[in-house]
Amino acid sequence: MAADEARSSRDEVVQDGSPVLPLDRGASLPGDVPPGPLGGVVGNIHQRFLQRYIEQDIIGHMELEMDAELDLGRLNVVMAFCDLAGYTRYTEEEGEEEALSFVESFVQAVTDTLPDDARVIKTIGDAVMIVGQDVQALTDWAVGFQHLFRDRPEPRIGIHYGAALYREGDYFGREVNLSSRVVARARGGEVLVTDAVVERVAESEHLAFEGVGQVKMKGFDDPVELCRAAMPA
Asked: How far apart are CA 84 and CA 88, in angstroms?
């Protein structure tokens, strides 16, 4: 019965072409509960169960609609890792307070300038993990973002496209690990992308790719083809 109620509620929330809105956790959900004090307890349990069921059902249907061939919980996304080259040395020379202030400004700049469909998933020290759907938009953003920071420590960005596991607002798996390795190969002020990105992005008067070659990544058996993304000379 609870599953049927959840599906009915999900169908009301998810409509064709409509945005998915966060569930109102204070809203009442359908279901018969016993009268009296016990009814309040059972009702709360019943409500929480239905909320959880609906949320997971919505996520599952969104994932299947995005790509019917993907396993449940796995999404095709463009992933970028962005950090500050030479941040450790900068901290030693300028002090912890100055370094922290710089990181806060850096993270805020990333958040404020991202394309509409991309978002910051998490920050780890001076590193920022970004996920989006539009490969072209995120690549264009990365190249343009580098021009906001001309002084050291300069940002470096690595971008990859692939299927990642989605769990509780975060992304995991081989493709995420690969994306984090790409940024480690970049120099300050540089944007490195994998061939999976190049295949989905068109060069333009604002964007060009330069081959770097096959690069061996730590923890991966096979080398990965990398390219440098930049504004045309």
From this structure: 9
CB 139 within 8 A of CB 193: yes
Other Cβ atoms within 10 Å of 79 Cβ, number: 28
Residues with Cβ within 8 Å of 62's Cβ and at least 6 positions away in sequence, in order, are 14, 20
pTM (two decimals): 0.69
**18-74 confidence digits (pLDDT tens):** 333 344 444 444 444 455 554 454 455 445 545 554 445 544 444 444 444 455 678
List, as own/partner pairs, every contact residues 57-63 make where C-beta atoms lie below 8 angstroms and the sequence separation is at least 24, other chains included.
57/6, 57/7, 57/10, 58/10, 58/13, 58/14, 58/20, 59/166, 61/10, 61/14, 62/14, 62/20, 63/166
Euclidean distance between CA atoms 183 and 155, whole angstroms: 10
Q: Which domain holds residue 169?
A: 74-230
Q: Output Rg (C-alpha) for the chain, integer angstroms.
A: 22
Q: Judge if 128 and 47 occupy the same domain.
A: no
What region, left, alpha or beta, does residue 211 occupy, with left being phi > 0 and alpha being psi -120 to 50 degrees? Answer: beta
Residue pLDDT, tens place only, 114-130:
999 999 999 999 999 99
Q: Do residues 78 and 62 both lie within one domain?
A: no
Indicate whether 147 and 32 sit together in one domain: no
Residue by residue, DSSP assigns 76-102 as EEEEEEEEETTHHHHHHHH-HHHHHHH
Residues 57 and 25 in one domain: yes
